[in-house]
Amino acid sequence: AKEPVRVLVTGAAGASFSGQIGYALVPMIARGVMLGADQPVILHMLDIPPAAEALNGVKMELVDAAFPLLKGVVATTDAVEACTGVNVAVMVGGFPRKEGMERKDVMSKNVSIYKAQASALEKHAAANCKVLVVANPANTNALILKEFAPSIPDKNISCLTRLDHNRALGQISERLNVQVSDVKNVIIWGNHSSSQYPDVNHATVKTPAGEKPVRELVANDECSGAAIIKARKLSSALSAASSACDHIRDWVLGTPEGTWVSMGVYSDGSYNVPAGLIYSFPVTCKNGEWCIVQGLPIDEFSRKKMDATAEELSEEKALAYSCLS
Length: 325
Ligand code: NAX
Fold this sequence. Notes:
Blueprint: E1 5-10, H1 21-30, E2 41-46, H2 52-64, E3 70-76, H3 79-83, E4 88-91, H4 103-124, E5 130-133, H5 138-147, E6 157-159, H6 162-176, E7 183-184, E8 187-189, E9 197-199, E10 204-207, E11 210-213, H7 214-217, H8 225-232, H9 238-253, E12 261-266, E13 278-286, E14 289-292, H10 300-324
Parallel strand pairs: 1-2, 1-4, 2-3, 4-5, 5-6
Antiparallel strand pairs: 7-10, 8-9, 10-11, 12-13, 13-14
Helix pairs in contact: 1-9, 4-5, 4-10, 5-10, 6-8
The structure holds ligand NAX.
Protein backbone atom coordinates (compact mmCIF):
# COMPACT_ATOMS: atom_id res chain seq x y z
CA ALA A 1 0.00 0.00 0.00
CA LYS A 2 1.14 3.55 -0.69
CA GLU A 3 2.21 5.90 2.09
CA PRO A 4 -0.47 8.53 2.82
CA VAL A 5 0.01 11.97 1.28
CA ARG A 6 -0.70 14.93 3.55
CA VAL A 7 -2.93 17.54 1.95
CA LEU A 8 -3.49 20.94 3.52
CA VAL A 9 -6.69 22.88 2.81
CA THR A 10 -6.82 26.38 4.29
CA GLY A 11 -10.22 28.02 4.69
CA ALA A 12 -11.59 24.51 5.01
CA ALA A 13 -14.58 25.51 7.14
CA GLY A 14 -16.01 27.64 4.34
CA ALA A 15 -17.43 29.73 7.10
CA SER A 16 -17.42 33.36 6.09
CA PHE A 17 -19.58 33.88 3.00
CA SER A 18 -21.29 32.27 0.03
CA GLY A 19 -18.90 29.89 -1.66
CA GLN A 20 -17.76 27.25 0.82
CA ILE A 21 -15.19 25.82 -1.56
CA GLY A 22 -13.39 24.10 1.30
CA TYR A 23 -16.50 22.19 2.31
CA ALA A 24 -16.92 20.93 -1.27
CA LEU A 25 -13.22 20.20 -1.67
CA VAL A 26 -12.33 18.08 1.36
CA PRO A 27 -14.68 15.17 0.56
CA MET A 28 -13.36 15.09 -3.01
CA ILE A 29 -9.81 14.79 -1.71
CA ALA A 30 -10.88 12.11 0.76
CA ARG A 31 -12.47 10.15 -2.09
CA GLY A 32 -9.31 10.14 -4.17
CA VAL A 33 -10.50 12.63 -6.79
CA MET A 34 -7.36 14.73 -6.39
CA LEU A 35 -4.57 12.18 -6.04
CA GLY A 36 -6.04 8.94 -7.33
CA ALA A 37 -8.23 6.10 -6.15
CA ASP A 38 -5.25 4.18 -4.76
CA GLN A 39 -3.63 7.06 -2.87
CA PRO A 40 -4.35 7.27 0.88
CA VAL A 41 -4.49 10.81 2.26
CA ILE A 42 -4.29 12.64 5.56
CA LEU A 43 -6.23 15.91 5.50
CA HIS A 44 -4.89 18.96 7.29
CA MET A 45 -7.57 21.64 7.61
CA LEU A 46 -6.81 25.20 8.71
CA ASP A 47 -9.20 28.01 9.46
CA ILE A 48 -9.35 31.05 11.73
CA PRO A 49 -10.55 30.94 15.36
CA PRO A 50 -14.09 32.31 14.66
CA ALA A 51 -14.55 29.32 12.31
CA ALA A 52 -13.08 26.72 14.66
CA GLU A 53 -16.41 25.23 15.62
CA ALA A 54 -17.58 24.98 12.02
CA LEU A 55 -14.23 23.42 11.12
CA ASN A 56 -14.71 20.80 13.79
CA GLY A 57 -18.13 20.08 12.32
CA VAL A 58 -16.51 19.40 8.95
CA LYS A 59 -14.07 17.04 10.67
CA MET A 60 -16.96 15.14 12.28
CA GLU A 61 -18.65 14.78 8.90
CA LEU A 62 -15.45 13.47 7.32
CA VAL A 63 -15.23 10.83 10.04
CA ASP A 64 -18.92 9.94 9.60
CA ALA A 65 -18.46 9.50 5.86
CA ALA A 66 -15.95 6.68 6.50
CA PHE A 67 -13.80 7.36 3.45
CA PRO A 68 -11.56 4.31 3.02
CA LEU A 69 -8.64 6.41 1.71
CA LEU A 70 -8.78 8.92 4.56
CA LYS A 71 -6.11 7.94 7.07
CA GLY A 72 -6.36 10.95 9.36
CA VAL A 73 -7.75 14.45 9.83
CA VAL A 74 -6.00 17.39 11.46
CA ALA A 75 -8.40 20.31 12.07
CA THR A 76 -6.70 23.32 13.57
CA THR A 77 -6.46 27.10 13.76
CA ASP A 78 -2.69 26.92 14.22
CA ALA A 79 -0.82 27.50 10.95
CA VAL A 80 2.29 25.65 12.10
CA GLU A 81 0.36 22.53 13.07
CA ALA A 82 -1.60 22.74 9.82
CA CYS A 83 1.49 23.05 7.63
CA THR A 84 3.65 20.43 9.29
CA GLY A 85 4.69 17.69 6.90
CA VAL A 86 2.25 18.58 4.12
CA ASN A 87 3.02 17.42 0.59
CA VAL A 88 0.27 19.39 -1.12
CA ALA A 89 -1.17 22.73 0.06
CA VAL A 90 -4.42 24.14 -1.32
CA MET A 91 -4.88 27.71 -0.11
CA VAL A 92 -8.58 28.56 -0.12
CA GLY A 93 -8.57 30.83 2.93
CA GLY A 94 -8.31 34.55 2.48
CA PHE A 95 -9.88 37.88 3.20
CA PRO A 96 -12.95 38.53 1.03
CA ARG A 97 -13.62 41.88 -0.56
CA LYS A 98 -16.48 43.52 1.30
CA GLU A 99 -18.82 46.26 0.14
CA GLY A 100 -17.20 49.65 0.37
CA MET A 101 -13.69 48.37 1.14
CA GLU A 102 -10.73 49.90 -0.67
CA ARG A 103 -8.77 47.61 -2.98
CA LYS A 104 -5.63 48.44 -1.06
CA ASP A 105 -7.16 47.41 2.27
CA VAL A 106 -8.24 44.03 0.92
CA MET A 107 -4.81 43.54 -0.64
CA SER A 108 -3.14 44.47 2.59
CA LYS A 109 -5.14 41.87 4.57
CA ASN A 110 -4.31 39.14 2.06
CA VAL A 111 -0.66 40.11 1.87
CA SER A 112 -0.34 39.67 5.62
CA ILE A 113 -2.20 36.33 5.54
CA TYR A 114 -0.06 34.97 2.68
CA LYS A 115 3.16 36.27 4.17
CA ALA A 116 2.47 34.44 7.44
CA GLN A 117 1.28 31.22 5.78
CA ALA A 118 4.29 31.28 3.43
CA SER A 119 6.62 31.24 6.43
CA ALA A 120 4.71 28.40 8.05
CA LEU A 121 4.91 26.35 4.84
CA GLU A 122 8.55 27.22 4.28
CA LYS A 123 9.53 26.04 7.73
CA HIS A 124 7.22 23.09 8.24
CA ALA A 125 5.94 21.61 4.96
CA ALA A 126 7.51 18.50 3.45
CA ALA A 127 10.34 19.06 1.00
CA ASN A 128 8.99 19.52 -2.51
CA CYS A 129 5.52 20.52 -1.29
CA LYS A 130 3.29 21.64 -4.16
CA VAL A 131 1.20 24.74 -3.50
CA LEU A 132 -2.03 25.82 -5.20
CA VAL A 133 -3.51 29.21 -4.29
CA VAL A 134 -7.26 29.49 -4.87
CA ALA A 135 -8.12 32.53 -2.76
CA ASN A 136 -8.35 35.88 -4.52
CA PRO A 137 -6.45 37.78 -5.66
CA ALA A 138 -5.11 34.32 -6.51
CA ASN A 139 -2.13 35.23 -8.73
CA THR A 140 -0.86 37.92 -6.40
CA ASN A 141 -1.44 35.87 -3.24
CA ALA A 142 0.66 33.15 -4.89
CA LEU A 143 3.37 35.69 -5.70
CA ILE A 144 3.48 36.88 -2.09
CA LEU A 145 3.61 33.28 -0.92
CA LYS A 146 6.54 32.67 -3.25
CA GLU A 147 8.40 35.75 -2.00
CA PHE A 148 8.09 34.73 1.62
CA ALA A 149 8.87 31.06 1.13
CA PRO A 150 12.16 31.39 -0.76
CA SER A 151 13.21 27.80 -0.10
CA ILE A 152 10.13 26.43 -1.88
CA PRO A 153 11.09 26.18 -5.57
CA ASP A 154 9.29 28.67 -7.88
CA LYS A 155 8.04 25.69 -9.86
CA ASN A 156 6.10 24.44 -6.84
CA ILE A 157 3.89 27.50 -6.43
CA SER A 158 0.83 27.99 -8.62
CA CYS A 159 -2.61 29.54 -8.66
CA LEU A 160 -5.96 28.29 -9.90
CA THR A 161 -7.19 29.28 -13.35
CA ARG A 162 -8.38 25.77 -14.09
CA LEU A 163 -11.96 26.70 -13.24
CA ASP A 164 -11.87 29.34 -15.97
CA HIS A 165 -10.28 26.79 -18.29
CA ASN A 166 -12.91 24.17 -17.51
CA ARG A 167 -15.65 26.74 -17.92
CA ALA A 168 -14.39 27.60 -21.39
CA LEU A 169 -14.45 23.89 -22.29
CA GLY A 170 -17.95 23.57 -20.88
CA GLN A 171 -19.22 26.60 -22.78
CA ILE A 172 -17.86 25.33 -26.07
CA SER A 173 -19.41 21.92 -25.53
CA GLU A 174 -22.77 23.55 -24.77
CA ARG A 175 -22.63 25.77 -27.83
CA LEU A 176 -21.56 23.06 -30.22
CA ASN A 177 -23.67 20.41 -28.56
CA VAL A 178 -20.72 18.05 -28.18
CA GLN A 179 -19.33 16.15 -25.20
CA VAL A 180 -17.04 18.25 -23.03
CA SER A 181 -14.52 15.40 -23.10
CA ASP A 182 -14.22 15.91 -26.88
CA VAL A 183 -13.11 19.55 -26.47
CA LYS A 184 -9.54 20.44 -25.53
CA ASN A 185 -6.71 22.96 -25.54
CA VAL A 186 -8.43 26.21 -24.69
CA ILE A 187 -6.07 28.62 -22.90
CA ILE A 188 -6.61 31.04 -20.06
CA TRP A 189 -3.91 33.70 -20.23
CA GLY A 190 -3.03 35.97 -17.33
CA ASN A 191 -4.87 36.96 -14.21
CA HIS A 192 -7.74 35.11 -12.54
CA SER A 193 -9.88 38.25 -12.86
CA SER A 194 -12.05 39.88 -15.47
CA SER A 195 -8.90 40.88 -17.39
CA GLN A 196 -8.03 37.26 -18.15
CA TYR A 197 -7.97 36.24 -21.81
CA PRO A 198 -9.78 32.99 -22.61
CA ASP A 199 -8.25 31.99 -25.96
CA VAL A 200 -9.96 29.43 -28.21
CA ASN A 201 -7.65 29.92 -31.21
CA HIS A 202 -5.86 26.64 -30.59
CA ALA A 203 -8.77 24.64 -29.18
CA THR A 204 -10.06 21.55 -30.99
CA VAL A 205 -13.17 19.37 -31.00
CA LYS A 206 -13.13 15.65 -31.72
CA THR A 207 -15.65 14.87 -34.50
CA PRO A 208 -16.35 11.67 -36.44
CA ALA A 209 -14.30 13.27 -39.23
CA GLY A 210 -11.30 13.87 -36.94
CA GLU A 211 -10.15 16.80 -34.83
CA LYS A 212 -11.46 20.18 -35.93
CA PRO A 213 -10.37 23.63 -34.77
CA VAL A 214 -13.04 25.22 -32.55
CA ARG A 215 -12.53 28.43 -34.54
CA GLU A 216 -14.01 26.77 -37.63
CA LEU A 217 -17.13 25.80 -35.71
CA VAL A 218 -17.99 28.88 -33.67
CA ALA A 219 -18.12 32.44 -34.89
CA ASN A 220 -15.41 34.70 -33.53
CA ASP A 221 -17.50 36.82 -31.24
CA GLU A 222 -19.46 33.86 -29.93
CA CYS A 223 -16.57 32.66 -27.85
CA SER A 224 -15.41 36.04 -26.65
CA GLY A 225 -13.92 36.40 -23.23
CA ALA A 226 -16.84 38.56 -22.16
CA ALA A 227 -19.38 35.74 -22.51
CA ILE A 228 -17.22 33.41 -20.48
CA ILE A 229 -16.46 36.01 -17.85
CA LYS A 230 -20.16 36.73 -17.52
CA ALA A 231 -20.75 33.10 -16.64
CA ARG A 232 -17.70 33.15 -14.38
CA LYS A 233 -19.50 35.52 -12.03
CA LEU A 234 -21.80 32.72 -10.96
CA SER A 235 -21.25 31.51 -7.47
CA SER A 236 -18.96 28.53 -7.59
CA ALA A 237 -17.93 26.05 -4.97
CA LEU A 238 -18.37 22.58 -6.42
CA SER A 239 -16.83 23.59 -9.75
CA ALA A 240 -13.98 25.46 -8.07
CA ALA A 241 -13.31 22.46 -5.83
CA SER A 242 -13.45 20.06 -8.76
CA SER A 243 -11.13 22.27 -10.79
CA ALA A 244 -8.67 22.46 -7.89
CA CYS A 245 -8.62 18.65 -7.90
CA ASP A 246 -8.04 18.64 -11.67
CA HIS A 247 -5.18 21.12 -11.26
CA ILE A 248 -3.33 19.04 -8.65
CA ARG A 249 -4.14 15.69 -10.29
CA ASP A 250 -2.75 16.73 -13.66
CA TRP A 251 0.27 18.36 -12.04
CA VAL A 252 1.11 15.24 -10.02
CA LEU A 253 -0.05 12.49 -12.38
CA GLY A 254 0.52 14.22 -15.74
CA THR A 255 -1.59 15.64 -18.57
CA PRO A 256 -2.78 13.29 -21.33
CA GLU A 257 -0.67 13.18 -24.51
CA GLY A 258 -1.62 16.04 -26.86
CA THR A 259 -3.57 17.95 -24.20
CA TRP A 260 -2.60 21.04 -22.29
CA VAL A 261 -4.28 22.77 -19.34
CA SER A 262 -4.09 26.28 -17.86
CA MET A 263 -2.17 26.97 -14.66
CA GLY A 264 -1.11 30.21 -13.02
CA VAL A 265 2.68 29.81 -12.74
CA TYR A 266 5.80 31.92 -12.26
CA SER A 267 6.55 33.57 -15.57
CA ASP A 268 9.96 32.93 -17.12
CA GLY A 269 9.28 35.48 -19.86
CA SER A 270 7.63 33.00 -22.26
CA TYR A 271 5.38 34.70 -24.84
CA ASN A 272 6.93 38.02 -23.79
CA VAL A 273 4.99 37.95 -20.55
CA PRO A 274 7.08 39.87 -18.00
CA ALA A 275 9.16 37.51 -15.86
CA GLY A 276 8.37 37.64 -12.16
CA LEU A 277 4.59 37.57 -12.36
CA ILE A 278 2.34 34.62 -11.57
CA TYR A 279 0.54 34.41 -14.91
CA SER A 280 -1.75 31.75 -16.35
CA PHE A 281 -0.19 29.85 -19.27
CA PRO A 282 -0.97 26.71 -21.23
CA VAL A 283 1.10 23.93 -19.63
CA THR A 284 1.69 20.22 -19.98
CA CYS A 285 2.71 18.18 -16.94
CA LYS A 286 4.94 15.14 -16.63
CA ASN A 287 6.70 13.51 -13.67
CA GLY A 288 5.25 16.07 -11.28
CA GLU A 289 6.50 19.12 -13.23
CA TRP A 290 4.69 21.59 -15.43
CA CYS A 291 6.16 23.02 -18.56
CA ILE A 292 4.82 25.99 -20.56
CA VAL A 293 3.66 25.01 -24.06
CA GLN A 294 5.98 26.89 -26.40
CA GLY A 295 5.70 28.18 -29.94
CA LEU A 296 1.97 28.79 -30.30
CA PRO A 297 1.29 31.50 -32.87
CA ILE A 298 -0.20 34.62 -31.24
CA ASP A 299 -2.24 37.03 -33.37
CA GLU A 300 -2.48 40.74 -32.79
CA PHE A 301 -5.83 40.58 -30.96
CA SER A 302 -4.49 37.94 -28.57
CA ARG A 303 -1.28 39.90 -28.02
CA LYS A 304 -3.22 42.93 -26.84
CA LYS A 305 -5.34 40.87 -24.47
CA MET A 306 -2.30 39.05 -23.09
CA ASP A 307 -0.49 42.34 -22.50
CA ALA A 308 -3.51 43.96 -20.83
CA THR A 309 -3.88 41.18 -18.27
CA ALA A 310 -0.09 41.23 -17.65
CA GLU A 311 -0.34 44.97 -17.08
CA GLU A 312 -3.06 44.43 -14.47
CA LEU A 313 -0.90 41.83 -12.73
CA SER A 314 2.06 44.23 -12.64
CA GLU A 315 -0.19 46.80 -11.01
CA GLU A 316 -1.46 44.27 -8.48
CA LYS A 317 2.13 43.32 -7.72
CA ALA A 318 3.05 46.95 -7.12
CA LEU A 319 0.02 47.38 -4.88
CA ALA A 320 0.92 44.24 -2.92
CA TYR A 321 4.50 45.44 -2.44
CA SER A 322 3.28 48.84 -1.30
CA CYS A 323 1.36 47.02 1.44
CA LEU A 324 4.60 45.46 2.67
CA SER A 325 6.37 48.68 3.42
P1 NAX B 1 -15.69 31.11 2.12
O1 NAX B 1 -15.83 32.39 2.82
O2 NAX B 1 -16.85 30.21 2.03
O3 NAX B 1 -14.47 30.36 2.78
C1 NAX B 1 -13.26 31.02 3.07
C2 NAX B 1 -12.73 30.45 4.36
O4 NAX B 1 -11.43 30.99 4.59
C3 NAX B 1 -13.59 30.80 5.59
O5 NAX B 1 -13.89 29.62 6.29
C4 NAX B 1 -12.69 31.73 6.39
O6 NAX B 1 -12.91 31.61 7.77
C5 NAX B 1 -11.32 31.20 5.98
N1 NAX B 1 -10.21 32.09 6.25
C6 NAX B 1 -10.18 33.44 6.25
N2 NAX B 1 -8.96 33.87 6.59
C7 NAX B 1 -8.20 32.78 6.80
C8 NAX B 1 -6.86 32.58 7.21
N3 NAX B 1 -6.05 33.62 7.47
N4 NAX B 1 -6.41 31.33 7.34
C9 NAX B 1 -7.22 30.28 7.11
N5 NAX B 1 -8.49 30.40 6.74
C10 NAX B 1 -8.98 31.64 6.59
O7 NAX B 1 -15.12 31.48 0.66
P2 NAX B 1 -15.14 30.59 -0.67
O8 NAX B 1 -16.35 30.88 -1.43
O9 NAX B 1 -14.81 29.20 -0.29
O10 NAX B 1 -13.94 31.25 -1.50
C11 NAX B 1 -12.62 31.12 -1.08
C12 NAX B 1 -11.70 31.94 -1.96
O11 NAX B 1 -11.66 31.41 -3.28
C13 NAX B 1 -12.14 33.40 -2.12
O12 NAX B 1 -10.98 34.21 -2.01
C14 NAX B 1 -12.68 33.44 -3.52
O13 NAX B 1 -12.60 34.73 -4.08
C15 NAX B 1 -11.76 32.46 -4.22
N6 NAX B 1 -12.20 31.89 -5.49
C16 NAX B 1 -11.24 31.61 -6.42
C17 NAX B 1 -11.52 30.96 -7.60
C18 NAX B 1 -10.45 30.65 -8.58
O14 NAX B 1 -10.77 30.12 -9.63
N7 NAX B 1 -9.18 30.95 -8.32
C19 NAX B 1 -12.90 30.59 -7.95
C20 NAX B 1 -13.81 30.52 -6.77
C21 NAX B 1 -13.60 31.60 -5.74
O15 NAX B 1 -14.17 32.79 -6.22
